[in-house]
Amino acid sequence: MANKVKLGLVMEGGSMRGMFTAGVTDVMMENGIEFDGAIGVSAGAAFGCNYKSRQPGRAIRYNKRFCNDKRFAGVGNFIRTGNIFNAKFCYKTVPDELDVFDRKAFKENPMEFYVVATDVEKGCEVYYRLDNGDDEDIELIRASASMPILSKIVEVDKTKLLDGGIADSIPLKGFEKLGFSKNVVILTQPLGFVKEKNKHMTLIKLKYHKYPNFVGAMADRHIKYNAETLYVSRQEAAGNAFVVRPPESLNISGIVRDPNELQRVYDIGRKTMTDRLEELKKFINDITKKKISPTS
Q1: Is 273 in contact with 27 (CB distance < 8 Å)?
Q2: Tens digit of each residue's pLDDT (9 = 90 or more) over 79-128
Q3: Per the CB 3.0–4.6 Å rule, which of 64, 193, 209, 247 could disulfide with 189?
């Protein structure tokens, strides 16, 4: 008996470039686009989790509300806690009290949801499937979004973790290996973007000298990233991926105090997806009609 093709959603990170992703995914949710599974990296995980909890508008709403709140992000947080984004406020107070994350809806939605983190000791990517939206799931989302230098290492089940984008920024190939043969991929850099070698390797070597595999992953990140964008383009050309990219560089910093800047990037995401909505629907309709054998 044949199995239906599994349709996946892959979301790149990029700190506040993730507002573009939020705009794209909100339009998808508002138009009833459903996926069998989704995978997010860094900001793609932190904002993308709202797809499984069925909460369009939440990511842009709380980011605009708290972008000027010193409890949310800033140098003061970094000095006090070692995290530029306040872990307790961002991953406890906001989702539990101030802009509630719907854990019940997250758990009940059958869509599989994965996040990518980087194993600091091994210097490689680790995939985690989040099913419940509980505190451990939230902690894994935090790990996926914990930027090196600006965040403390997050330890989960004795595994030291940091930003998933270090080891696997665009996990299309990995998601395909998990059985998602057709995918919608949301990138936060425009077509033709080429990542350059990290300019802060001296500081990284000093900070993480106990973790040579992690330092190596940081040194090679640009090589892997550029190979991944090439792979995405090849899968797009082959008809296996529908890729949504910003039309040009988003030009937004990692920490933003101006809610209008967040709205600007979010609106670019909304317009980009709205303009391609019928194209996306055709992509999905075409592949959901196809069948694959259980051994393929």
Answers
A1: yes
A2: 998 999 999 999 999 999 999 999 999 999 999 999 999 999 999 999 99
A3: 193
What is the residue-wise DSSP string for the chain? Answer: --EEPPEEEEE---GGGHHHHHHHHHHHHHTT---SEEEEETHHHHHHHHHHTT-TTHHHHHHHHHTT-TTTBSHHHHHHHS-SB-HHIIIIIIIIIIS---HHHHHH--SEEEEEEEETTTTEEEEEE--S--HHHHHHHHHHT--TTTSPPEEETTEEEEEGGGT-SSTHHHHHHTT--EEEEE-SS-TT--PPPPTTHHHHHHHTTT-HHHHHHHHTHHHHHHHHHHHHHHHHHTTSEEEE--SS-----SS---HHHHHHHHHHHHHHHHHTHHHHHHHHHHHHT-EE-TT-
On the question of pLDDT at 1 being above 50, the answer is no
pTM, two decimals, is 0.95
